[in-house]
Amino acid sequence: MVVVFVLIAAAVLAAFAALHYYAWRRLVRGTTAKGGWPRRFGTLVFVAGPVLVFAALAAERGGAPFLVQQVLAWPGFLWLAFALYLLLALLVGEVVRPLLRRFLDRGAPAAAVAPEGAPVRVPVPELRELEPVPGLAPAAPAPTRRLVLARTVGAAATLAAAGVVAGGAYGVLRGPTVKRVTVPLAKLPRAAHGFRIAVVSDVHLGPVLGRGFAEKVVETINSTQPDLIAVVGDLVDGSVEDLAPAVAPLARLSARHGTYFVTGNHEYFSGADPWVEHVRELGLRPLENARADIGAFDLAGVNDIAGENYGEGPDYARALGDRDTSRASVLMAHQPVMIHEAVKHGVDLQLSGHTHGGQLWPGNFVAGASNPTLAGLDRYGDTQLYVSRGAGAWGPPVRVGAPSDITVVQLASKQA
Description:
This protein is of the alpha/beta class. The protein has helices at about 1-30, 35-60, 65-105, 145-175, 210-225, 240-245, 265-270, 270-280, 315-320, 340-345, 365-370, and strands spanning about 175-185, 195-200, 230, 260, 285, 290-295, 295-300, 330, 350, 375-380, 385, 405-415. The strands form two sheets. A six-stranded mixed beta sheet has the order 1-12-2-3-4-5, covered by helices on one side. Strands 6-7-8-9-11-10 form a six-stranded mixed beta sheet.
């Protein structure tokens, strides 16, 4: 297992280095003069960027001082997103480059052709040394068409990547939007028709998204005036000691039937037990393989799959085994892959997150291949699954093609 991990890590590092080398050749080596300061500066950027990425990841996973994590996270994670879209833009440039070259060649003056059979005379100009003009530097040689082409494609790729990342970062930092979904449940009594559950997942408070972001999330949730709030994991990336001030606004969450919480995989990376106790102090009710009677239906919650490595994995029998199956049931489970167990236990609706909707296109294809549902409402037998794209972002505070959301799931009774 260790050998396989080392081989995979080596392959990832080699690919990462190769992609950066390709981008450096196109953007730096292919557009600047050897030995000049632009080339030295560009080389420094392409070395520092990847170093900051791995430093940011190592600081977060290694539990470095929180200030160090914050200092490294912004440039490191933003570079990761920028490098992705820079690479994609350069690949598009490879397709456009031949077309631009043909266009430039078409605009070049045609060479004179002598009549057939006529002697070709090549005039030889008289060579003489020009006198230097005092106070003027020698004129720089005009750039070749090839250099103009390289600089044009490189500048366009850089601007495109920067624009995509800037727009994606703005989308995250302004806070999640509200999405509304109606889910009919056959067993839901008529009196509970229209019951509203605010589903929030993947807030990822940490070195990048802090207290200000948490306040936006709380304000957005409370503005929907939900009957119940379901926090379905990945609330934090860091320790209680470091992030207690950031999560403090969660104490203001307000719903008639309360706020409930289940762990995600990132809680186990951050220390799940301390976080479970801390959110309880903030007024959230953790459902650790447990169930609550909401009156009109049963609300159950199971620990995330990542808890299996800590002896705290999901226990569906404990959460669902002895319930009255004639009552409607809603299950909070962080990962969509847990739907198969939900189907076995006769759950009516599972609420999940985890996927981020892919977060960074084309990551949606990878996330979609590894999860039964990427985002939105789906059905598996008699069980429905709703997957939120999440309120925040992990790693780069950037979303492209997968806007963040807080979803108000409105339950509908078929008896109404």
